[in-house]
Design brief:
With 260 residues, the chain is α/β, with parallel strands linked by helices. Helices cover 41% and strands 17% of the residues. The strands form 2 sheets. Strands 1-2-3-5-7-10 form a 6-stranded mixed β-sheet, sandwiched between helices. It has a 4-stranded mixed β-sheet with strand order 4-6-8-9. Helix 9 packs antiparallel against helix 10. The N and C termini lie far apart (39 Å).
């Protein structure tokens, strides 16, 4: 059995943690598979969006495989890419979406937070449940959670080990959409398909400016934005001009709308 499955949907790359018998927890082999999938995605110009999900309907990822924890620490490349395979990778350069079904806890929550945003099925559950076992967050959780949900909410989750359902996670800002059970991947693919229709340079540069600027003083962030976008319009000049001409003519694609 392959622990990590990959599949192309036009210009979207779906990466599936395929260990449903153990709630898609991650051992060394799985971490290596995640790294190889993400590395392939970032180097492939024919792919625009990565969607990360878990096999089955019980769990997105229940974290590290605590029964085989040693395989994570001894995996070659762990110090460069992180215990879970991808947590230290920050140069993907393209949108990433987590499609969350069922349990998304401990290191699995850290994997979901590695993605740009999260689409949750109604059965999704989130939490730093590793708090009960004394296992720390060492795959970016202490850094990404505060940036996503704010410091107070992050510390509440980190210190208490509280478990959130999908609607609670939506209120926290941890997920951006909640969809019916079993529909998270379908919705993520719909969004990914739309993202592929946009001019890519401006979107990817906006993404870079947001990621790199969030920790800067405001004036430095503005300067960074200007610097990153110095050439944004030049490579896609004809495409942008064509889009603006369509806008002026009343040809305006409908924007993405979150579910009610």
């Amino acid at each position: 059995m392959t622990n990590v499955l990959t599949e192309r949907h036009d210009r979207t790359f779906v990466v599936t943690i395929n260990r449903s018998d153990v709630r898609n927890c991650v051992d060394g082999e799985t971490a290596q598979g995640l790294f190889e999938a993400v590395d392939a995605f970032r180097g492939d110009d024919t792919l625009d969006v990565l969607v990360l999900t878990g096999a089955g309907d019980v769990s997105f990822c229940a974290g590290a495989d605590l029964k085989n924890i040693g395989t994570l620490a001894t995996r070659p490349g762990r110090t460069e890419t992180g215990y879970m395979g991808i947590s230290l990778i920050t140069d993907v350069g393209k949108p990433t979406i987590a499609a969350v079904n069922g349990y998304c806890v401990a290191g699995g929550l850290e994997l979901a937070c590695w993605c740009d945003f999260r689409i949750a099925g109604a059965n999704a559950q989130f939490g730093v449940l590793n708090r009960r076992w004394g296992v720390p967050l060492i795959d970016g959780g202490t850094q990404r959670l505060p940036r996503i949900v704010g410091l107070g909410n992050a510390l509440y989750l980190i210190e208490t080990g509280a478990q959130l359902n999908a609607e609670q996670a939506l209120r926290f800002g941890l997920v951006q959409e909640v969809v019916p059970e079993g529909q998270a991947l379908t919705r993520a693919l719909e969004i990914a398909s739309t993202l592929s229709t946009y001019p890519q340079v401006a979107m990817r540069n906006d993404r870079q400016a947001a990621f790199e600027g969030i920790a800067l003083p405001f004036d430095e962030g503005l300067a960074l934005e200007a610097r990153i976008h110095h050439d944004s319009l030049t490579p896609e000049g004809p495409d942008v001009n064509e889009r603006l001409a369509k806008f002026a003519a009343g040809d305006r694609p409908k924007p993405i709308s979150p579910p009610n």
